[in-house]
Design brief:
There is one protein chain. The chain has one helix at about 1-15; strands spanning about 35-40, 50-55, 55-65, 70-90, 90-110, 115-135, 140-160, 165-175, 180-185. A hairpin with a 5-residue loop joins strand 6 and strand 7 (about 140-160). It has a single domain (about 30-185), classed as Porin (Beta Barrel), CATH 2.40.160.20. By secondary structure, the protein is mainly beta. An 8-stranded antiparallel β-barrel has the order 1-3-4-5-6-7-8-9. Helices cover about 10% and strands about 60% of the residues. The protein is elongated and about 65 Å long.
Length: about 190
């Protein structure tokens, strides 16, 4: 089993090590390229008990920093993700907010050859904060509670540029939303 894994790993590294910048397509992330994207998320984290929720709101910035890395390019950036909700009963209200601020790195491979399409995969690390409060009309007390910690996420996505600067993007990932999609601006 170990020998099979070593052989597969060697084969993959060999395939990816033949960098060829001629394969880069128009719209592909390259060194010095900047992208701002904004969108909404679906699926993923929810309380399950809300009477109203915001969609997951995602905003990110990326900058290409390295070309020809394992048959692709590398970008780094930052992302902010937010979601809020509220549940109201006849005698109480419960609200929550979730905010994550992360740094992200993405690898943009060359081997998918579709003009104006930029595919990528990557990781994010940062900080999240969850806050919640509970107000009751029956009792003379209110609760405010929350937590924070390290936010970790992985993503795989694609960005398609309709024009030189404007496009659409979608990402699948393990983070606040399972699917995030929206519009992008490249400059």
């Amino acid at each position: 089993m170990k020998k099979t894994i070593k052989n597969i790993t060697f084969l993959l590294l060999t395939l990816f090590s033949f960098s060829n910048s001629a394969l880069a397509q128009e719209g592909h992330m390259t060194k010095g390229t900047n992208v701002i994207q904004a969108g909404i998320g679906f699926g993923g984290w929810t309380s399950g008990y809300t009477t109203s929720e915001t969609p997951i709101i995602a905003v990110a910035f990326e900058r290409g920093i390295m070309d020809n890395l394992l048959n692709g390019n590398l970008s780094v950036g930052a992302a902010i993700t937010y979601k809020g909700g509220k549940y109201s009963g006849s005698n109480y209200t419960w609200r929550y907010n979730y905010l994550a601020v992360t740094a992200r790195a993405s690898w943009h491979p060359y081997f998918i050859k579709v003009e104006k399409l930029d595919t990528y995969t990557g990781l994010s690390i940062g900080y999240y904060r969850v806050s919640s409060d509970y107000d009751s009309k029956w009792y003379s007390y209110d609760y405010d509670f929350g937590g924070s910690g390290v936010a970790l996420a992985a993503h795989v996505g694609a960005r398609y540029n309709f024009t030189e600067n404007f496009g659409a993007w979608a990402e699948l990932g393990f983070g606040l939303g399972l699917l995030n999609a929206g519009v992008s601006y490249t400059f």
